[in-house]
Write a structure and sequence with these properties.
The complex is a heterodimer.
Chain A lengths: L1 H14 L2 H37 L4 H4 L9 H19 L4 H26 L16 E2 L2 E2 L5 H18 L6 H26 L15 H22 L6 H69 L5 H12 L4 H18 L3 E5 L5 E5 L8 H13 L3 E7 L6 E11 L5 E10 L5 H6 L9 E8 L2 E4 L14 E3 L6 H6 L4 E6 L5 E8 L5 E8 H61 L3 E5 L6 E4 L1 H7 L3 H5 L3 H4 L5 H12 L5 E9 L5 E11 L6 E8 L1 H23 L3 E6 L4 E4 L1 H7 L3 H4 L10 H17 L3 E9 L2 E13 L5 E10 L1 H13 L12 E6 L5 E4 L2 H5 L10 H7 L2 H17 L3 E8 L5 E12 L5 E10 L1 H19 L3 E5 L10 H7 L3 H4 L15 H10 L4 E9 L5 E12 L5 E10 L1 H29 L3 H15 L4 E7 L5 E9 L2 E3 L6 E2 L4 H8 L3 E3 L11 H7 L3 E9 L2 E10 L7 H80 L6 H32 L5 E3 L1 H12 L2 H6 L1 E4 ...
Parallel strand pairs in A: 41-43
Antiparallel strand pairs in A: 1-2, 3-4, 3-7, 5-6, 6-7, 8-9, 8-13, 9-10, 11-12, 12-13, 14-15, 14-18, 16-17, 17-18, 19-20, 19-23, 21-22, 22-23, 24-25, 24-28, 26-27, 27-28, 29-32, 30-31, 31-32, 33-34, 33-39, 34-35, 34-36, 37-38, 38-39, 40-42, 43-44, 44-46, 45-46
Chain B lengths: L10 E4 L3 H13 L6 E4 L2 H9 L15 E4 L8 H10 L8 E5 L4 H10 L3 E4 L4 H9 L1 H13 L1
Parallel strand pairs in B: 1-2, 1-3, 3-4, 4-5
Helix pairs in contact in B: 1-5, 2-3, 3-4
Classes of the chains: A alpha+beta, B alpha/beta.
Chain lengths: ~1500, ~150
């Protein structure tokens, strides 16, 4: 049943795509939440903007100071649309919402289309302001009005929303249109928002109002809301493959479109940004260049005018001019004038300075020379003379030379004489000297950039300077002022700032316009746009290239994604399909009937093979049938009523039994499981039907047999009843009811005590117990007290046994023999030859005359299968029929009756006519006359063959039980033992007599007091315990491992009335297991022991460990570990444990002689005694026996062939140690022996070490004292020994200095000899002290970088010149461990040696190298010096040993000795190789590791 | 050598070996440093002089010496002890002390620097080198004059 439900649930999940349903649910949930979220966001934004307007915070409407605000109308629209979509998605089925949505959407669409038109046509209505007073403009357009683009977007959004309002699946087209519209809107708004985010808002600076940021955001949210809203409508479910794939395609296209629009927008914005920046840079350059030039021009003009001022109004000059003009011959004046002019010319680079008389005749000029006069000049000169003011004659073209000049015309007046005009100075300026170069000069490298100087000349703009592209433009090129496109014209018209236009060549340019102050000039700094855009174009190409790459990448990525998506989709489908097919196959082949039918029409839609097979219809036939056609028990009405709970969802599964009708009209009972399964195409009912014919049939048969049995029992004339082990009635038949006069109901569950007198009830109970105990049927004569008096019954009782053959109840069948009894009594009493044919076939009375004649009263012939009268009527004839085994018994009993009146009541076998053996129960007694003489015999026989047969069977079973090796016994639920077989006797040692009636608890070991109670309790709960492994105790208190199987014995009512127990002795198995466990344990103990004793050298610990671990290893009553002394004459016990506890044994040495140790020493092998004393008698044998030790093992501990001790194990059990134990002990002994030996050795070594240490300590003290002395000695050497030397040297020097005149040369030389010797003595002392200190000072070991060290020392020792003369090569030296200052000294000595001995040679080469070897590092220093004779190599390192004369090489001969000492202190070696004249190599080695050095020390 | 009790002593030479003392004086003289040099022969006398007590009780502690040249191996009071006492007294610890010694023992050098010696000159056997070494005292002279000026 449960199984079936699970199967149905599985079917629901797999067959009907529950999986997909959940995924679909998720999608639905998401797509119902998304529009709500988006529309709420849009509405919120709209509200925020409105609030901003109303509350006077327009910033809330623009989201930025320099941004256009959203119009109130737009905000309101967004708010309303947002709300509409929110409600629409929240309550998709509400008609009211739909209606209001439609109304609002239509209104919005109309309004926004109107606004779009108005806004596009620049018609701004104040209605749009919604009554809020908004003034102000943005880039020239009034704010507060809807942008045409916003209007368009709003209109389209409204349309899309309207499209989404149709929810009917038939009108999917509209939803799709709305979806597409929403996609477009999303793209548009994304572009707008992106532009804002990237800082280049769209439509800014144009003629139309740009869409505001909040508007863009709102429309994006609205578009997304509509998009997600329509998504569900367009693709309501994703169950079919095509829509799924199509959808993933659409999604991919959408992603690609979004991605590429993002990429394009980014690229565009980036490029625009760059362009603007670049433009700004160029404009900056132009502006600053023109600024600079304007100021320079201005300055230049001022300077020029300032230059003019030195002549103008200058009395000195005017006087000079006057006199020179007056007296032209005056050389002084001439020179004076020319000096003035020269100074001015040279100072300010004038082209020419001339002095004119008032008649404008040139009188003087510098530089000198005649030049024809230009008419324009004359005109200006005249003006100057007339006005008596300085005139700045602008650019003009000299008509004679065609050169361009400027002039400063200074009228010279006689100030003293009424300001009379004396003449005029003209300072002619060649623009090529300064102005033109200034204009041409451009600060940055540029192809087209230049500056133009313009003057307005009539209706023309006149170019004043030479141009880059028109060298002859100055004063020639003019452009009419009406060509306002030209920057020069604009400049001439007074415009300033940056402009774009076309230049004189017609090329598009960008220019900066400036007026030059105080002048008629305008400056134009211009540059070709082509140059400006040159880098931009380049940049654009790069951008385009990158974008193309990105687009291709995005396309590829999206394509791959789509492919993957598609592949996955198909894969999923394939897998799901396969799974479905598999399940379908399983269902289709199932032999259970599975039907699917329509809940409405009840027509079959599906039936599996099992169903078709069972019902006999083909699929086609079934298709035309309804469920009712196979359910004859139901009418349509009743069936619909029955399935109603399913349809309304009150029940998940309906289970009921009914009958199905096959095609052939036969019917069969079924169990039907109905379930409603929702499918997309409508719900169906799934029916899973089990044919329960077989079950029904079995149930029927069982019921019938039960009824039959009950009938038999009830109709029996005997009393039949069953009582349980407690004596309660479990079953009684009708006869019993009537006999006892008590109803069945009153009897059941009660004991006999309730209606029988005590003693009778007790007798019955005893009989019951006997039957149970015997386990076989028995016959009793029982008495009952009935309403009409006492009755005697012949009762056959047999135990009812459960499967374990233990009885749980007793069945009794009682036949009322009261009458017969009475008759017998009567017969006996009256002693009448009363022939009576007994009513019963089985009872026959006989009479014997004690001779041959036997009379049978009853149908003896019928009983024995003889024709009437043919059964023998003689003693001999009867005797012949007796069973040979029984005849002796029978005659003996007859004899006893005859002679001693012993009761004759026995059972024997007798042959029937057909040869079969028949059991008779025979009774009889001798009839005696008044004198007591026997004269006859009367008795009865009963054929008890039937009973016997039953008994035999029981006996047979009992014998099986009896002969079983397992202990099989029964007990009451309380544990009272009721039966006990031979196996149990064998196993537990109790005989049946001993144990019956006792509690089974006596079999439980004392350490498990509650186990049995617990087990019985479990069995009492009707639980069968199988193979429960435990320990039981035998009669002689031996523990045995057993496996128990306990089963409850139930009475007919199912109550547990007894427990059968089968006990199997698993001691052997357990022993094997234990043996294995012990072996593993022993191994681990040995292993542990091995570890412990090999890790310690403490001999006491070894002893302790060995002996204590032995407990886990072997069983013993006593164990001891003994050792022998060195010469093997005495032994002592070092550890002893008795019964698991350490025993104190005084360590006394005992003689080996006569002890068992002697045997061990002599034989060097293990001594095993199963019984102490069997292998010999030793001094301690008696003692052991007295202690009760019965067996033992002694193992010698042998190390290198010598017995050093022994281990013994002793047990009070004889033969306690087996081969395995001995092996363990022996292997242990090997280990222990070695450990003890090692520990002993170690102790000896320790002792030695201690002595040694003591000696070392003493020596150390002595050494330290000696060291101290040495230290004191060297201290005084350095102090006291040197003081006199110093005096000798010092005073010799003083003599040399102060008394030099008193000495001749020889005297001075001798004094110098003294000095040099004292100094040498000083050196010697120093070196010797060094040597001493090297040996004495404490070493600090650190890691030393030898390469650096050697290198630094070389540079320290050798002077810079010397360094140049020597070629030094230092290889990569291995690191060293040592004292840094000592190592420094080693290198210093070796390197200074090398330098010293290489000095005389031409080739001065020193090579330092080193290598690592095993455990040491070797360094060498090789020189190309004078070398040495190898035969003296050993002398090199001796103190004061020198191989060269002092004259040749200075030195004390201590240096190498110091080296040697240091190296030795570091645990290394030093040696040298050399050839005379070829150079020498000194080697030294060091231990390569710190630890090694420590160890050596 | 007698001295005006109020005269400022510039150099105190503590040297027990008269030969060494003479050589030191010559070396100082060679470096033009021999004006106002007081020579004392043992540590006790040196301390008496510096702290103006005993036979020098009439002196004023404030009056110098400007530099002390101190041998380490001295009778009575050891040179290191003299150094310690001078550097321990706030009145005298500013006096630069230059240890002049023939001992190259590291422990002496270390000990001297621990006690605050200002310089350490090894007395070489070679007199010329000694003269060179005394030249270094000129550095302290300079320092001293400057500090006196300040």
């Amino acid at each position: 049943m449960e199984n079936l439900r699970i199967r149905i649930a599985m079917m629901e999940v797999f067959v009907f795509g529950g999986n997909m349903k959940t995924r679909e649910d998720l999608r639905r949930r998401i797509f119902s939440l998304l529009p709500q979220a988006f529309s709420a966001a849009a509405a919120g934004l709209g509200f925020t903007v409105l609030f901003g307007w109303l509350s006077g915070h327009p910033l809330l409407a623009s989201f930025g100071a320099n941004l256009i605000p959203t119009a109130p109308s737009t905000a309101l629209l967004c708010f309303l649309l947002g709300l509409s979509i929110l409600f629409r998605s929240r309550f998709p089925l509400n008609r009211g919402v739909a209606f209001i949505g439609t109304a609002l959407g239509s209104l919005s669409a109309v309004a926004t289309f109107l606004l779009f038109y108005a806004s596009s046509a620049h018609i701004y209505s104040s209605v749009e302001l919604l009554g809020i007073s908004i003034t102000g403009t943005f880039n020239g357009v009034p704010i507060g009005h809807m942008s045409p683009l916003s209007a368009l977007i709003c209109a389209l959004t409204a349309l899309a929303f309207l499209g989404s309002l149709s929810s009917s699946p038939e009108r999917r087209g509209r939803a799709f249109a709305a979806f597409v519209l929403a996609c477009i809107l999303t793209l548009m708004s994304t572009a707008l928002v992106l532009a804002y985010l990237l800082g280049t808002p769209l439509m800014y600076g144009g003629a139309f109002i740009p869409p505001a940021l909040p508007t863009s955001l709102c429309s994006l949210f609205l578009a997304l809301a509509v998009l997600s809203l329509t998504n569900l409508q367009v693709w309501p479910s994703s169950t079919t493959e095509e829509t799924g794939v199509a959808r993933s395609l659409y999604a991919s296209i959408l992603i690609f479109v979004l991605l590429s629009s993002g990429i394009l927008a980014t690229g565009y914005v980036y490029h625009r940004q760059f362009e603007r920046q670049h433009r700004a840079e160029i404009e900056d350059v132009l502006a600053s260049v023109s600024d600079l030039k304007v100021s320079e021009l201005k300055h230049w003009r001022e300077e020029r005018l300032g230059g003019a001022a030195q002549f103008y109004g200058n009395t000195t000059f005017s006087r000079l001019a006057e006199s020179s003009l007056r007296i032209p011959e005056s050389v002084d004046a001439r020179i004076g004038i020319l000096t003035w002019f020269r100074q001015a010319q040279e100072g300010d680079q004038y082209d020419r300075i001339s002095l004119y008389d008032p008649a404008l005749v040139e009188r003087f000029s510098y530089p000198n020379g005649f030049e024809p006069v230009d008419s324009l000049f004359l005109r200006h000169a005249a003006t100057a003379l007339r006005s008596r003011e300085i005139v700045f004659q602008d650019f003009y073209r000299d008509e004679h030379t065609d050169r361009v000049f400027l002039n400063i015309l200074i009228p010279i007046c006689d100030i003293r004489n009424s300001n009379r005009v004396i003449g005029m100075v003209a300072m002619r300026i060649d623009p090529d000297t300064y102005v033109y170069p200034l204009l041409i000069k451009w600060p940055t490298p540029s192809r087209t950039a230049e500056t133009l100087l313009i003057r307005k000349d009539g209706n023309n703009a006149l170019f004043l300077n030479r141009l880059k592209f028109n060298n002859d433009a100055a004063l020639k090129l003019r452009i009419p002022l009406d060509s306002t496109d030209v920057p020069a014209v604009k400049a001439a018209l007074g415009q300033t700032g940056i402009i774009e236009g076309r230049d004189y060549r017609g090329m598009p340019v960008i220019a900066d316009l400036h007026a030059v102050p105080d002048s008629p000039w305008f400056l134009v700094a211009r540059m070709d746009l082509s140059e400006v855009y040159e880098p931009l174009t380049e940049r654009l190409w790069i951008t385009v290239f990158i974008m193309c790459g990105l687009l291709i990448g995005a396309g590829t990525g999206v394509g791959l994604l789509w492919r993957e998506q598609k592949a996955r989709f198909y894969r999923d489908h394939y897998l799901a399909g396969r799974e479905r097919a598999w399940l379908h196959d399983v269902i289709a082949r199932s032999l259970n009937e599975v039907y699917v039918f329509d809940p409405g029409t009840l027509q079959f839609k599906f039936a599996n093979a099992g169903a078709r097979h069972n019902i006999g219809y083909t699929t086609q036939e079934l298709a035309g049938l309804t469920a009712l056609d196979i359910k004859p028990e139901y009418t349509e009405q009743s069936f619909r009523a029955a399935v109603q709970p399913l349809l309304i969802g009150r029940e998940m599964v309906l289970v009921f039994e009914t009958v199905h009708r096959r095609k052939d009209g036969t019917r069969y009972p079924v169990e039907s499981h109905l379930q409603l399964v929702e499918r997309p195409e409508g719900a169906v009912i799934l029916a899973i039907v089990n044919d329960i014919t077989e079950r029904k049939r079995t149930e029927e048969a069982k019921r019938e047999s039960e009824t039959l049995l009950q009938d038999i029992i009830d109709n029996s004339t005997s009393l039949i009843y069953i009582v349980d082990t407690d004596g309660r009635f479990v079953l009684v038949n009708r006869k019993a009811e009537s006999v006892l006069g008590i109803s069945r109901e009153q009897l059941i569950g009660r004991t006999r005590d309730a209606f029988l007198p005590q003693e009778i009830a007790a007798a019955h109970r005893q009989n019951d117990a006997e039957v149970l105990r015997a386990g076989t049927s028995m016959t009793f004569e029982e008495e009952n007290v009935e309403p009409d008096g006492r009755h005697t019954y012949l009762t056959v009782k047999f135990p009812l046994t459960n499967i374990e053959k233990s009885g749980y109840a007793v069945c009794g069948m009682s036949t009322d023999i009261t009458e017969r009894k009475r008759m017998e009594e009567t017969l006996k009493a009256s002693e009448l030859r009363f022939r009576l044919a007994a009513g019963s076939l089985t009872d026959v009375i006989y009479e014997w005359d004690l001779k041959e004649k036997v009379d049978w009263y009853g149908d003896i012939d019928g009983l024995m299968g003889y024709p009437p009268g043919e059964f023998p009527r003689t003693l001999a004839g009867w005797a012949q029929l007796l069973h040979p085994d029984d005849s002796q018994l029978v005659f003996a009993a007859v004899d006893r009756q005859l002679k001693a009146s012993a009761p004759y009541d026995l059972e024997y076998r007798i042959r029937r006519k057909d040869g079969a053996w028949c059991w008779w129960s025979a009774r009889g007694s001798v009839r005696r006359d008044e004198n007591g003489e026997p004269f006859g015999w009367i008795g009865s026989i009963t054929d008890i063959t039937e009973r016997k047969r039953g008994e035999e069977e029981s006996v047979f079973l009992a014998s099986i039980i009896q002969s079983s090796d397992d202990a099989i016994f029964g007990k009451t639920p309380e544990g009272i033992i009721l039966s006990w077989n031979a196996g149990a006797e064998n196993m537990y040692g109790y005989s049946a007599e001993e144990i019956l009636g006792r509690n089974v608890a006596i079999l439980s070991p004392p350490d498990r007091p509650h186990e049995i109670a617990h087990l019985l309790e479990r069995v009492g709960r009707d639980e069968t315990i199988r193979q429960f492994e435990t320990v039981r105790m035998t009669k002689d208190r031996k523990m045995i491992d057993v496996s128990l199987t306990l089963s409850p014995i139930r009475d007919a009512g199912g109550r547990v009335t007894g427990v059968s127990s089968i006990t199997r002795d698993i001691t052997r198995r357990k022993e094997a297991e234990n043996e294995l466990r012990r072996y593993v344990n022993q191994l681990s103990v040995i292993n542990r022991l091995d570890r412990v004793i090999s890790s310690t050298f403490d001999i006491e610990e070894v002893y302790d460990t060995v002996v204590s671990e032995m407990r886990h290893l072997l069983r013993f009553d006593r164990t001891s570990l003994m050792t022998l002394n060195e010469d093997g004459t005495e032994w002592q016990i070092v550890r002893q444990w008795t019964s698991g506890e350490a025993a104190f044994v005084p360590k006394t040495w005992r003689k080996v002689e006569n002890s068992v140790v002697e045997w061990l020493v002599r034989n060097k092998r293990t001594l095993v005694e199963s019984h102490i004393g069997e292998k010999g008698t030793w001094s301690e044998t008696e003692l052991l026996k007295k202690e009760g030790i019965a067996s033992g093992v002694r193992v010698p501990l042998i190390v290198r062939g010598k017995v050093i001790g022994a281990m013994t194990l002793a047990s009070k059990n004889p033969d306690a140690y087996k081969k395995g134990d001995v092996e363990i002990l022996e292997s242990l002994a090997d280990q222990v022996g070695i450990s003890i030996h090692n520990a002993a050795m170690y102790n000896k070594v320790e002792e030695h070490a201690a002595t040694l240490e003591k000696r070392v300590a003493e020596r150390t003290v002595q050494l330290e004292a000696a060291n101290k002395e040495l230290e004191a000695f060297s201290y005084s050497v350095s102090h006291d020994l040197r003081a006199p030397l110093r005096s000798i040297d010092g005073f010799s020097q003083i003599i040399l200095e102060e008394y030099s005149n008193k000495f001749d040369a020889e005297g001075k030389r001798l004094l110098n000899v003294i000095r040099s010797n004292t100094q040498k003595m000083g050196e010697l002392i120093t070196d010797l002290l060094d040597l001493a200190r090297v040996a004495r000072d404490e070493m600090k070991t650190v890691r030393i970088d030898m390469s650096t060290l050697a290198n630094s020392i070389f540079h320290e020792i050798a002077s810079p010149e010397a360094q140049k003369r020597y070629s030094l090569s230092i290889g990569a030296l291995p690191e060293a461990y040592g004292d840094p200052s000592l190592m420094r000294q080693v290198w210093r000595n070796l390197i200074s040696n090398a330098i010293k001995f290489t000095a005389p040679k031409d080739v001065r080469r020193i090579e330092i190298g080193g290598r690592s070897e095993e455990g040491k590092t070797i360094y060498f220093i090789r020189d190309s010096g004078v070398g040495f004779d190898p035969q003296y190599a050993h002398k090199l390192f001796g103190v004061f040993q020198r191989l060269h004369k002092t004259e040749e090489f200075e030195g004390t001969g201590v240096g190498l000795a110091i080296v040697q000492r240091i190296v030795h202190r570091h645990g290394g070696e030093v040696w040298a190789e050399g050839v005379v004249g070829e150079g020498a190599t000194f080697y030294f080695s060091l231990t390569s590791k710190e630890g090694d050095l420590e160890q050596q020390r | 050598m007698t001295l005006n009790s109020n005269a400022e002593v510039e150099i105190l030479l503590v040297e027990d070996n008269p030969n060494d003392a003479e050589l030191a004086l010559r070396a100082l003289k060679k470096n033009n440093l021999a004006n106002n040099v007081v020579v004392v022969g043992d540590g006790e006398e040196a301390l008496d002089f510096v702290f103006a007590r005993g036979q020098y009780a009439h002196r004023k502690i404030e009056n110098g010496p400007r530099v002390i040249l101190l041998d380490l191996k001295l009778p009575k009071v050891d040179g290191l002890e003299v150094l310690r006492l001078i550097k321990a007294d706030p009145r005298t610890k500013a006096i630069p002390v230059i240890v002049l010694t023939s001992s190259k023992e590291e422990k002496d050098i270390v000990e001297s620097y621990k006690l605050g010696v200002n310089s350490y000159i090894l007395k070489p056997v070679d007199f010329d080198k000694f003269v060179e070494a005394v030249k270094d005292i000129g550095y302290y002279w300079l320092l001293l004059n400057q500090s006196a000026k300040n």
